[in-house]
Design brief:
alpha/beta; Aspartate Aminotransferase, domain 1; four-stranded mixed sheet; about 35% helix; disordered N terminus; binds pyridoxal-5'-phosphate
Length: about 450
């Protein structure tokens, strides 16, 4: 381990050949590649630590975009995937089936509340949301109702990067202006978090109900839109409004699913059973790409008919990939055999105390915690490049976005490593705050 006690400029990174050679070949996500610092070359990961090519170790405060809930290389998942790889790495799900997918669907149906019992697999969160939207539109068509093809979504929301899912993202942070004309136009509302917004939401929904297939929301925490949090009552209000107007309700639990907010699914805390739920990020414990769109029985029944045209017209090539399903089954085993939800509760307590000192810093607007999510909101966006080297210097991987510095560690993180993460956030945001004042 290098000296991470802080002070001075960060040590220059040693960069392997393949990194420089791929500088233009490997197109990076959401990055102005010309001006951004080079990405950090990771050669291995174990537990909560990433190992870089130069031997340095970083404590991961991001869980690889919120997926690695059991940490990296958990032996139980590793063994399950190895065994599956030696038997059946992949087979199409059209006309064929295999036990890992069948078992996983049955287990998810059992775990999810109410009659959320019908599982459609795909390979990314965006596609799971695309499928949910297509399912909602076709639900109405199959029932002989036409014209219900729009969606109500919320400011601050994020649902993915494909065309339909971009259209239900926050209109400012999303690509609505850039891609005008390409994206369908949806009905965007404020989350009904208080009386005034509730009245406005009811009016909006009543006005558009005839053309709306479903309302879509990230329950309890809007993730990529800035870690914005709302309470269970807000979700119950939305659910009642949907029930009253006959509009379907989709909970996008791609980020919140599998314990991140404190209950296994955020809908459980709200006591709401949505018509359709989407899952992905932590589904395989952060190992392989997999996603699920799960529908309640009344939705499924509209597709279960003598009419071939009523079938759901979707089918990704790698749908229900056996390796990914084996990983997901092993991940569910770990939720049964290891104390993940109490670990999340302990992380929540720690984050609340550990991030609190940020609250008084000049330039910090808010500090908020829900489950294993801690967010420090700054008063301006675009500070990531300034903050990053200071985090690296402290041996932690923290990647702020927009005006938010956040932590979403693996659930298996111990007290000391968690303390290192919160201490680094307090110190680095403190440095930023003093620099900003001077
Ligand atoms: C990440 C995310 C998505 C998109 O998932 P991808 O796997 O990146 O396509 C959709 N919805 C929510 C709530 C997410 O956090």
């Amino acid at each position: 381990m290098p000296d991470t006690s802080g002070g001075g400029a960060p040590a220059p990174l040693w960069l392997p050949d393949w990194l420089d050679q791929s500088r233009r070949a490997l197109w990076r996500p959401y990055t102005q590649m010309k001006t951004a610092p080079p990405p950090l070359p990771v050669v291995s990961a174990r537990g909560v630590r990433l190992t870089l090519a130069d031997g340095r170790e970083l404590i991961d405060g991001v869980s690889s975009w919120w997926t690695a809930c059991h940490g990296y290389c958990h032996p139980h998942i590793e063994a399950a995937v190895r065994e599956q790889l030696s038997k059946l790495p992949h087979v199409m799900l059209g006309g064929l089936v295999h036990e890992p997918a069948a078992r996983l669907a049955t287990r998810l149906a059992r775990l999810l509340p109410g009659d959320l019992d019908h599982v459609f697999f795909s390979d990314s969160g965006s596609v799971a949301v695309e499928v949910a939207m297509k399912m909602a539109v076709q639900f109405w068509l199959n029932g002989g109702v036409s014209g219900r093809t729009r969606f109500v979504s919320f400011r601050g929301g994020y649902h993915g990067d494909t065309a339909a899912t971009m259209s239900v993202c926050d209109p400012e942070e999303g690509m609505h202006a850039l891609l005008r004309g390409y994206l369908p136009e949806q009905v965007i509302a404020d989350l009904p978090t208080d009386g005034e917004r509730r009245t406005a939401f009811s009016a909006l929904l009543a006005a558009h109900a005839h053309e709306v297939a479903a309302v879509i929301v990230e329950p309890l925490v809007q993730g990529a839109g800035g870690m914005r949090m709302h309470d269970a009552e807000t979700l119950r209000f939305i659910a009642r409004a949907c029930a009253e107007t006959g509009v379907l309700l989709i909970f996008d639990e791609v980020m919140t699913g599998f314990g991140r907010t404190g209950s296994l699914f955020a809908c459980e805390e709200a006591g709401v059973v949505p018509d359709i739920i989407t899952l992905s990020k932590a589904l395989t414990g952060g190992t392989l790409p997999l996603a699920a769109t799960v529908a309640r029985s009344p939705i499924f029944e509209r597709f279960w008919a003598d009419d071939a045209q009523a079938a759901l017209m979707h089918g990704p090539t790698f749908m229900g990939n056996p390796l990914a399903c084996a990983a997901a089954n092993a991940s569910l085993d770990l939720f049964e055999t290891e104390p993940r939800l109490s670990q999340v509760a302990a992380i929540e307590r720690h984050l609340k105390g550990g991030l609190e000192p940020c609250r008084t810093l000049l330039g910090v607007v808010d500090v908020r915690v829900k489950g294993a999510i801690g967010a420090v909101q700054l008063d301006r966006a675009g500070e990531g490049d300034w903050l990053r080297p200071h985090f690296l210097e402290r041996g932690v991987w923290v990647r702020p976005f927009g005006d938010v510095v956040y932590l979403m560690p693996p659930f298996v993180i111990d007290e000391d490593d968690l303390a290192a993460l919160t201490k680094a956030v307090v110190e680095v945001v403190g440095l930023w705050s003093r620099e900003r004042a001077s």
